[in-house]
Amino acid sequence: MKRLLILCLSLFAFAWVQAQDQGAWVFFTDKDGVSFDPYSYFHPKAIERRKNEGLPLSHITDWPVRQDYQEILQEMGAELLFSSRWFNASAVYASVEELQAIAQLPFVKSIESTMLEDGGLAEVEDDSKAPDGFKGLAWAQTEVMGLKEFRAQKINGKGVRVAVFDAGFPGVDKHEAFEHIRQRDGIKATYDFVKNKSFVYDYGAHGTNVLSCIAGKRNGKPLGLATGADFLLARTEMTLREPFSEEKNWLAAAEWADKNGADVINSSLGYTYHRYFTWDMDGKKSLVARAANMAARKGILVVNAAGNEGSTDSWGIVGTPADADSVLSIGGIDPWTNYHINFSSYGPTADGRKKPNVSAFGYAVTAQPKGGYAGSYGTSFASPLVAGFAACAKQAKPQAKAMELFQAIEIAGSLYPYYDYAHGHGMPHASQLLNAVDLLETFSVTEMPESIEVTLKDLPEPKPLPGEVSNAPYLYFHYADPKGKIVNYLVVDLEGATSYSISTEDFPEAYQVFIHYRGYSLKIKL
């Protein structure tokens, strides 16, 4: 009887799933007969960006989806949610039977079922109240990335348009942290892709926290580097759950940001174990990764949090769209140790690519919706700190293309050219971006039969280097195979020692050891 009951319940559950509408992407074969005028569709800033990037003003991926195709889907019973110009596809709700019938239409290329309303995912971020006295942190989160150097050249992101995708922006229309933006009409457009309306100053507080790390002020002093930038604010996320439809919203927001002239997108969002497996994090599987790469191809620099699953055994690696090849993925640094913060997700991607690209503080002072400020944990706040840096980089290098800025930010990293899967290339700094500072050789090496002896040079006690909060005496090194793939890496606190022995006995010849100490890097072939 018990087995029969279980079987009956299983059949009932299967029949219930069959009866429910599910979300799917319907991809079409063509755009024959559609018309498109880029000058009436795009904001002048978008036209300007395309010309700077050497992109055509009218490309088939910009043309609208055929209206008759969309109407036929609706006539067949599908609920139309959104149609993507970039992918020539419509997101719909439909039953299994309706999707089977739609798949037979001659103009339907393929269908991807995404189960848009199934599953849930807690927010990537983990916020908490700061301990008493975070004044030093508010100063450090911008100073460590070169606020002084940027301001010396009057760089604050002016003229750069940043799109922020998040769960809501309550208080941004009232909080003192954003008064300087409101006074100059710096919020150029807003849209809520969850509710399909323009008002975004409600719902999840996270977007307010994030925006303050790009351009907020506290007592007149910057919390983010890009206080002069302009903004497009998009609500793409729900606050209590994250159904698959949020990836649809992300894509819709990206097309909207493109249309409205965004130079940079900040996405402190990520999608992981509630909808994917770790092996899906290859930059190609998820819709949102494909959307992010398409945004990059449109000339937008996409900056995305790596994720907060670094301390979980079940996941650990970067989420999507941080896994996308053309996304600048941001890891988290502990402000007090200058070292990887424990929850920040690690690289590489499932297909072995280097992520994160750079890092910033994973604990930051943020504006709170009802007034005041607090400390907030998460790579969600490292990402906007770098997005603010990116806006300043764009102002400093206005003719640079998006992927040129991507590379320039990596090169500006405090560890560059060294790299590891915890820190990326370190924290970017204005001095490296603007002037390419020459650094002294800080160590010498002696190769032994089964080790490399690293000896620190006798140098005067230095001031903190770009990207350092203090004189953190860390020695970084990694081992790489002949193809350059990192097979192991380590960060060592020398604790006053002047030498360190790196063992090579477990690694075959033709492997490489890449060593970094206080700005100086050296690669040695075994």
Please tell me how large the radius of gyration is: 24 Å
Strand content: 15-25%
* Distance, first to last CA: 68 Å
* Contiguous uncertain segments of 5+ residues: 1-19, 116-132
Helix content: 25-40%
How many helices? The count is 14
Look at the helices and sheets and give the structural class.
Answer: alpha/beta
Described by the principal axes of the CA atoms, the overall outline is globular
Mean pLDDT comes to 89
Main pleated sheet: 8 strands, mixed
According to DSSP, the number of beta strands is 24
Question: What does this 3D model show about the protein?
Answer:
The chain is an alpha/beta fold. The protein is built from 14 helices and 24 strands. It has helices at 2-19, 38-41, 44-53, 67-75, 96-102, 135-143, 147-152, 179-183, 206-215, 245-259, 287-297, 379-396, 402-411, 430-435; strands at residues 22-28, 79-84, 89-94, 108-113, 126-127, 161-166, 187-192, 217-218, 221-222, 230-235, 264-267, 301-305, 327-334, 339-340, 358-361, 363-367, 373-377, 443-447, 451-456, 474-480, 486-493, 499-503, 512-517, 520-525. Strands 6, 7, 10, 11, 12, 13, 14 and 15 form an 8-stranded mixed beta sheet that branches. The chain has a 4-stranded antiparallel beta sheet with strand order 2-3-1-4, with helices on both faces. A hairpin with a 2-residue loop joins strand 8 and strand 9 (221-222). The longest helix has 18 residues, at 2-19. The protein starts with a helix and ends with a strand. The model is unreliable at 1-19 and 116-132 (pLDDT under 50).
Can I get a quick summary?
With 526 residues, the protein is of the alpha/beta class. It contains 14 helices and 24 strands.
